Inverse folding.
């Protein structure tokens, strides 16, 4: 426990409700937050970019941007922030919380929508509510960016094929001259309904502090 | 109804004929054994006489010598019987809906055994050597080679828990309880001591992969449950091996010492890890060998089989776990081998493995039936009934207890329904029987064998038959139709990276972090060594995409020439997706690529039968002629043949749902089947992708029938027109027809 721990205890219950994490998990995340921010109140993009392990990640830019995206704060706001505080950090993290097995079907659907929304926001960079072909192309290009010299043509054709698939699944009958604007959120949901997002898009958040290496039970 | 009746009578006659054959051959065998000596002596005499003096006996124009071919003949007969049975069950669908195939096979085995016994012959027993060395490996290899890696690795903790702790619990519970039962005076089993009971427990506890596969394959249960039970059945081999040998050794000494127990634990680690290591070594060697097999493609599949088999045998030499070695070998070898071997070889490997495992599986169950009839049996009501009861009880308790523990660590918890299916799916099978058979001959052995057979019958018949209605009743999730789409693939990869990134930001090294590290290690070091040519740097998304496009092309061609147009669902084509007025990306398609594709499409429009007839000879001949034909042309040809061969090995009637909405192909693993490593064309992969999309964009010809790959299909609607006309049409449709010399090249290698 460092000396510069300024944990506003009274906020924790608030945060627990909003984000769904347990007290232990919030504590751990707060410590990490402090670590990343150098004990400041806010994290900037540079702080995140400094994480060495992220260097090998082909989509690190998108990930970092997602943290600063206002849409992920459940506030119906758009735009992006320059810095985020702990609460916002937590809100973004809460998207990756696994769903409780005791949750009802509606709750599961809500969680699933939430997670898909997060993904959608990552792709839809211009905030217009649809993923256009160009945006999708960027996604594929970024995915392949670390794999050596890949021609943009390849990325393009893959993105085109994917787009085509979405279009043909969701809007089966289009006249030859119609133009498919882009992937809306409903189409996005439809195309990814094969992947069980509730379970796939989650990571373990630890209850106990790994730094102190206490063997405790991992949270679910 | 008529056809069904006809086929059933057909089948009955077939069955009767076959039974007659078997009976006949055995009759002959025995007859021959007797008369063999006399005929031999007569022939000897005649020969010697012939040498010395004039022929006293006439030269036998037609003689009968059965002993000469007896063994292979009988083996073939048995295999034929197995195959006919398999065929029969599929011709009559009604029975196989209710009764799983394994039950029917055991029943047939009982029948055959009964018939053989009735003729006074000694029916063959399932020899343990035969089983462990010849019948079991193909099934395990098939399972291991096609093991779905993602669910397996995601659930490895759970699987190991069930395999190790679950089996241990079963062994000690059953062994202990049976010992308690043996103490009951009424049972007259006082002579069975604790160690023997424990030995019995170790034999009967292990869930059997053969039975599990046989039953679970038919009920199409969801992937998670399938991999849990199946993975458990594979990995518990190590535990079984150790405990079996441990108790067998100690049975002599009548007591287990502490050192013995400690050695047992150490032995477990040695057996399992050693087995895995042997498998890994063979797998790597196999992958490395496959890097060079481009020089002789025909023998490629053999390498796969032999390396795996050697891994199994090598592990068995040291009493390590052969099954784990085999699985490890298959799993390690597969991604690299598939990147290296040709498409035909891949198909060969796949079909041979399926074939062998299918035959093995059938033979095992038939032999189980026969061996039951063969006996000898010592039936002790109390022992047998209590064995069955305790097997069930211990399984249920074990699963419940372990799940309660495991669920603390799992993200996706196991529900009560899941637990029930896991418990109910714990089938015993031939491995237990063979292990029991290997016991030393004494009175206890027969007692054990009878009990083992009863348990096997119970699990296979009762549990096997009722699991399907129970699955329906409990509404357990079934297997998803895995219609993979490019979107899902993109997002699967995206998610992987995203979650790794989030884990990194969170600062803890979780599941994704290590997976990512492993992947990167694989990419930078391992692939470079084990994969030939430029395939080593091909990212997964691209190979996935290429493979998909290839399959689509084949599917389209197939559906076109099989005179069955897929139902039109979507009229969307690429034009709808690309922005109006957006400049068509200039694609620098290599001419050779384009003509390649054109050739493929054109040639496939021809009569398929013609192609089929000349398939095998022609391809092999070409391999031989490699040196003669100029390199460039030959490569193009191989490319085409590769596509063709894929097309040809997919049976034409296998197009249940038309691939119109999503791209789909058989629910397989991701395979680097595309492209040849020998190709010097540097932009092979990218340009193909270009070409294929390019094809989508040549829509100028009116496409009345539009499917998503509308444009290709419109060109491939050949049934009304004659082939020749089609070819011209196709070549006109695709972008600018190449210069004339290409036509010459075409004619040279079209059959």
């Amino acid at each position: 426990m460092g000396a510069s721990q300024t944990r506003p205890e009274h906020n924790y219950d608030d945060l627990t409700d909003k984000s769904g994490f347990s007290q232990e998990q919030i504590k751990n995340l707060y410590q990490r937050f402090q670590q990343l921010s150098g004990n400041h109140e806010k994290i900037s993009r540079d702080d995140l970019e400094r994480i060495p392990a992220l260097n090998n990640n082909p989509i690190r830019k998108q990930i970092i941007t997602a943290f600063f995206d206002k849409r992920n704060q459940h506030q119906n706001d758009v735009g992006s922030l320059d810095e985020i505080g702990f609460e916002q950090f937590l809100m973004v993290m809460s998207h990756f919380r696994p769903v409780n097995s005791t949750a009802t079907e509606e709750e599961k659907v809500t969680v699933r929508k939430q997670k898909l929304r997060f993904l959608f926001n990552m792709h839809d960079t211009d905030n217009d509510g649809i993923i256009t072909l160009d945006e999708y192309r960027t996604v594929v290009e970024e995915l392949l960016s670390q794999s050596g010299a890949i021609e943009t043509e390849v990325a393009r054709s893959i993105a085109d094929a994917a787009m085509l698939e979405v279009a043909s699944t969701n809007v089966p009958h289009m006249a030859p001259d119609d133009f498919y604007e882009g992937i809306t959120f409903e189409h996005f949901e439809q195309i990814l309904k094969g992947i069980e997002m509730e379970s796939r898009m989650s990571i373990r958040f630890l209850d106990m502090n790994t730094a102190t290496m206490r063997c405790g039970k991992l949270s679910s | 109804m008529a056809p069904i009746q006809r086929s059933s009578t057909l089948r009955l006659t077939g069955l009767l004929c076959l039974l007659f054959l078997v009976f006949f051959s055995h009759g002959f065998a025995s007859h021959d054994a007797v008369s063999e000596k006399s005929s031999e002596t007569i022939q000897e005499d005649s020969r010697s006489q012939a040498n010395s003096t004039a022929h006293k006996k006439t030269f036998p124009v037609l003689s009968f010598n059965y002993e000469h071919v007896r063994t292979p003949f009988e083996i073939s007969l048995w295999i034929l019987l197995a195959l006919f049975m398999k065929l029969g069950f599929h011709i009559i669908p009604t029975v196989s809906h209710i009764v799983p195939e394994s039950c029917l096979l055991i029943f047939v085995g009982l029948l055959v055994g009964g018939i053989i016994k009735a003729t006074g012959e000694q029916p063959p027993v399932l020899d343990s050597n035969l089983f462990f060395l010849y019948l079991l490996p193909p099934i395990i290899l098939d399972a291991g080679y096609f093991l779905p890696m993602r669910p397996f690795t995601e659930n490895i903790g759970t699987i190991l828990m069930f395999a190790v702790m679950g089996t241990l619990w079963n062994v000690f519970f059953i062994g202990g309880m049976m010992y308690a039962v043996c103490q009951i005076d009424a049972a007259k089993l006082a002579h069975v001591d604790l160690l023997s009971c424990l030995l019995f427990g170790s034999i009967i506890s292990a869930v059997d992969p053969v039975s599990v596969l046989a039953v679970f394959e038919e009920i199409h249960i969801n992937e998670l449950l399938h991999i849990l039970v199946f993975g458990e059945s594979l990995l518990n081999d190590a535990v079984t091996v150790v405990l079996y040998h441990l108790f067998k050794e100690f049975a002599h000494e009548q007591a287990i010492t502490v050192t013995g127990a400690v050695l047992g634990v150490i032995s477990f680690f040695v057996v399992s890890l050693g087995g895995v290591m042997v498998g890994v070594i063979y797998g790597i060697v196999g992958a490395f060998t496959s890097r060079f097999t481009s020089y002789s493609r025909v023998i490629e599949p053999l390498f796969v089989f032999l390396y795996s088999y050697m891994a199994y045998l090598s592990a068995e030499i040291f009493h390590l776990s052969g099954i784990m070695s085999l699985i490890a070998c298959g799993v390690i070898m597969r991604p690299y081998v598939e990147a290296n071997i040709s498409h035909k070889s891949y198909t060969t490997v796949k079909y041979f493995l399926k074939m062998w495992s299918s035959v093995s599986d059938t033979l095992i169950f038939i032999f189980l039936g026969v061996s039951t009839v063969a006996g000898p049996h010592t039936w002790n009501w109390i022992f047998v009934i209590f064995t069955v009861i305790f097997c069930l009880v211990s399984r249920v308790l074990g699963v419940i207890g372990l799940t309660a523990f495991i669920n603390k660590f799992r993200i996706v918890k196991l529900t009560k329904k899941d637990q029930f299916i896991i418990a109910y799916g714990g089938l015993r099978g031939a491995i237990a029987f063979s292990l029991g058979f290997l016991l030393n001959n004494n009175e206890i052995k027969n007692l054990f064998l009878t009990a083992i057979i009863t348990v096997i019958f119970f699990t296979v018949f009762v549990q096997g038959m009722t699991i399907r209605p129970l699955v329906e009743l409990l509404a357990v999730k079934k297997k998803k139709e895995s219609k993979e789409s490019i979107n899902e693939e993109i997002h699967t990869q995206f998610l992987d990276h995203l979650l790794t990134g989030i884990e990194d930001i969170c600062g803890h090294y979780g599941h994704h972090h290590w997976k990512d590290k492993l992947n990167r290690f694989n990419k930078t070091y391992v692939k470079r060594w084990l994969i030939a040519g430029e395939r080593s740097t091909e990212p997964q998304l691209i190979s996935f995409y290429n493979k998909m496009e290839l399959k689509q092309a084949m599917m389209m061609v197939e559906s076109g020439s099989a005179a069955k147009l897929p139902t039109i669902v979507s009229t969307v084509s690429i034009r709808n997706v690309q922005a109006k007025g957006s400049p068509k990306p200039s694609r620098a398609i290599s001419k050779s690529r384009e003509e390649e594709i054109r050739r493929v499409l054109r040639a496939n429009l021809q009569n398929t039968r013609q192609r089929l007839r000349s398939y095998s000879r022609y391809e092999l001949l070409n391999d031989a002629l490699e040196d003669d034909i100029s390199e460039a042309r030959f490569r193009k040809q191989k490319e085409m043949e590769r596509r063709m061969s894929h097309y040809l090995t997919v049976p034409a009637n296998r197009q249940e749902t038309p691939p119109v909405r999503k791209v789909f192909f058989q629910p397989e693993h991701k395979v680097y089947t595309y492209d040849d490593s020998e190709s010097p064309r540097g932009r092979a992969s990218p340009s193909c992708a270009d070409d294929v999309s390019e094809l989508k964009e040549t829509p100028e010809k009116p496409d009345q029938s539009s499917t998503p790959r509308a444009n290709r299909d419109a060109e491939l609607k050949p049934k009304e027109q004659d082939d020749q006309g089609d070819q011209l049409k196709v070549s006109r449709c695709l972008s600018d027809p190449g210069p004339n010399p290409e036509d010459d090249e075409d004619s040279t290698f079209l059959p």
Residues 128-474 of chain B form a domain with the Na+/H+ antiporter like fold fold (CATH 1.20.1530). The mean pLDDT of chain B is 71.
